[in-house]
Amino acid sequence: MTYNNKNIMGRHAIIEHIGIISSYTEERLKKLLSAVAFSARSTILNMKFHTFGHGMGVTGVLILAESHISIHTWPERDNYSAIDIFVCSDNDRLNAAIAVIGEEDPIGIMSVRIIDRSVPTVI
User: Fold this and answer.
1) Which of 67, 68, 70, 111 is catalytic?
2) Which of 49, 55, 64, 89 could form a disulfide with 42, with the two C-beta atoms 3.0–4.6 Å apart?
3) Cα 106–111–117 angle (5° rounding)?
């Protein structure tokens, strides 16, 4: 079977990050992800974060009218953070959101994969 993904519903950035962001407190991560959402011109509907304890990571999610942004940090595991940015909008908004992460830690190591989210149709 061959699939046609012309009906793109959104774009999903999967970001692997090594750097200082993994050591951020819950409050600092809330500010960072809020800035990411603002740069994507997205509307924050709700946010929920959980800190795992001193020296451990934080998990957080922003529920957006346009989709979601999430982060999971492991400062105890090589300063690693996993960040997802899923937006139902154009490339410019997604690229602006990704740029905020890069600007936050310009010496960090960041790998970005972008996935088109769409309903596949058989052709």
Assistant:
1) 67
2) 64
3) 125
